[in-house]
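2.7 Reproducibility. Because tokenized structures are sensitive to small changes in the input, we list the exact sequence used for Nucleoside-binding protein, including any N-terminal residues retained from the expression construct. No trimming or masking was applied before prediction.
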Amino acid sequence: MRRMRGVALTAIALTGALSLVGCAKDTGGGKSPSGGTAAGQGCKLSPKPDVPATAATSSTTPEKVDGSALKVGLAFDIGGRGDASFNDAAVSGLDRARAEFGIKPENVKEVTASPNEDEAAKQTRLRQLAQDGFNPVIGVGFAYAEALKAVAPQFPNTRFAIVDATVEGAPNVTPLVFAEEQASFLVGVAAAYKSKTCRVGFVGGVETPLIQKFEAGFVQGAKAAAPDIKIEKKYLTRAGDFTGFQDPEKGNQAARGQIDAGADVLYHAAGASGKGVFSAAKSGNALAIGVDSDQAKQPNLADVKDVIITSMLKRVDVAVFDLVRAVARNEVATLPKTFDLKVDAVGYSTTGGKVDDIKDVLDAYKAQIVTEKIKVSDKPGK
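Resulting structure tokens (single pass, no recycling of outputs):
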């Protein structure tokens, strides 16, 4: 969820749309995936876009790799294991690498950041991993960018990597960055199709350029599917205060405010604070959309999984796994510059079957993005 750079793309309007009308009251009935509404329910929907003939995505088949000599250090962002989101996605990728590449348990070390800690603490954490011979050392989150700028040059033979950021002037730091806005667009479409009130909500953890990418894609997707939809938006903390990623109560309060305003589908990009968003959705008879991992599958969210209709998938697990494999094979330069829809590194989940009825619509929009018929902006509109 967290990165500082992104490719600024220009939002485009869908062509060939029917004349669109305003939001309708919730009077029952179901929506037609081909456009429009039934019995006046929800929003007036745009026609489903065409699927371009050249919309295939690429994928790679893992080859047998011997990683038994590797020592991997993973420096978590705040929350660590068990956040049911960003960090757990990184864990999944590392656990898969351990299993497939034969990495010994004693050759893996995980360390976790504290909320609003100073740069010295981050530097000490990374420096200790490198001094202990861990290679690669992976910083999970953009908060490690400044620390890596200081530490990486001290260990030129260690391969560092960072999720969601780049470190200029440090050739031994590999950026693992994502097109979060693309997958957020798809769940924005899902929100528009599933809303009965034609009003949805976005809850961001910390107001940074990275989290604004989630907002930008979500809003663009919702409006592409339903141009008259209303969108509530709330950030839990401002840039610099990272507690917004670890405050479920604050997430709950923000979500309840949006539900009170009429939103009935809520999307969060708020890390562990998202647990509060889910709780508010359940108690407020609303639906919710998860982030980063398939949150309907997370054990510590079992009590709210019934309200999670889908999750925006940011495959940090894929990036971590691919990075470890590339280091083992000495092929780091072959990694994607951006992990996007074209390489299936972002997407949406289907656990629970709650978006099965609109999967053809979501995949049609996905194909439009992959072929650049639709360009998704990574910055919120004014």
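Residues 180-314+344-370 form a domain with the Rossmann fold fold (CATH 3.40.50.2300).
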